[in-house]
User: Which sequence fits this backbone?
């Protein structure tokens, strides 16, 4: 029987709850796995006092827990009382969601992504592929795995670090189903949503929750973002996967969680709003093809 050796260290830009008064909240850079560089007085000004801020849901070593349950299993975490429309939404979106693994030789990263269109483009988070930015292109391997276990090499079409969005292209025979996108401004607080992806290396995992807030001001790394907040469980490996509503429409791209002492999901997750995702992806595709 396999023995779990740890889930790995969460990595990527950290989430820091913003103090909206610029004079009290200047630029902050927190390295991966490092501590908060601000003096104690400033740390106490953070709106989410007591949260040992977070980490994006991707990390080297993050797959270790996943292999225990078996690579080929589809894991659906939802209560028995899950509304029928969410069951239908899960069935609709799973064929368009993939696991993403980036291997740059000396470093690897794992996350999720989803099919954007019928031109074989896949949206994911930039921080998943960021390690490859300075790598020798000959050493770079980007692999996507579909919900039914098939694997394909993927090409990085382009990246937008400031928005934490990247676009991949997969071969046509991947046969991914493009996911419908929610209309701009249509997401409402309290509506049910699903987070779909590969947390801890478990492909095809679905978790349910609600939209906790929209237009939530947060800081990820060096950048301020307006995010969709959700209590759907998001963990390492979910980054880049879709947050979808009960109609199976993507309302955002899961990108970060708040944690206490780095202990995983506590029901505060953040997704990049689909309006921003679509605009950035269209720009990337226009430049990169």
Assistant:
């Amino acid at each position: 029987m396999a023995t779990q050796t740890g889930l790995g260290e969460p990595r990527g830009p950290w989430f820091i709850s913003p103090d909206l008064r610029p004079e009290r909240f200047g630029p902050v850079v927190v390295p991966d796995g490092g501590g908060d560089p601000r003096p104690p007085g400033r740390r106490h000004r953070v709106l989410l006092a007591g949260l040992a801020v977070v980490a994006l849901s991707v990390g080297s070593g993050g797959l270790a827990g996943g292999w225990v349950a078996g690579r080929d299993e589809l894991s659906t975490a939802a209560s028995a009382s899950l509304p029928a429309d969410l069951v239908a939404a899960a069935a609709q979106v799973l064929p368009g969601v993939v696991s993403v693994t980036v291997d740059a030789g000396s470093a690897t990263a794992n996350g999720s992504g989803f099919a954007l269109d019928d031109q074989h483009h896949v949206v994911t988070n930039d921080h998943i592929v960021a390690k490859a930015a300075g790598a020798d292109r000959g050493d770079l391997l980007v692999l996507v795995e579909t919900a039914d276990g098939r694997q394909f090499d993927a090409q990085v079409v382009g990246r937008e670090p400031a928005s934490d969005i990247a676009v991949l292209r997969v071969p046509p025979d991947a046969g991914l189903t493009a996911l419908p996108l929610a209309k701009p401004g249509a997401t409402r607080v309290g509506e049910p949503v699903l987070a779909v992806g590969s947390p801890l290396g478990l492909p095809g995992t679905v978790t349910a929750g609600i939209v906790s807030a929209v237009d939530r001001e947060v800081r990820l790394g060096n950048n301020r973002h307006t995010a969709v907040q959700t209590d759907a469980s998001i963990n390492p490996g979910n980054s880049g996967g879709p947050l979808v509503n009960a109609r199976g429409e993507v309302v955002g791209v899961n990108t970060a969680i708040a944690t206490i002492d780095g202990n995983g999901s506590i029901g505060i997750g953040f997704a990049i709003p689909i309006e921003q995702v679509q605009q950035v992806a269209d720009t990337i595709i226009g430049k990169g093809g």
Q: What stands out?
A: Confidence is low (pLDDT under 50) at residues 1-55, 57-80. The chain has five helices and 14 strands.
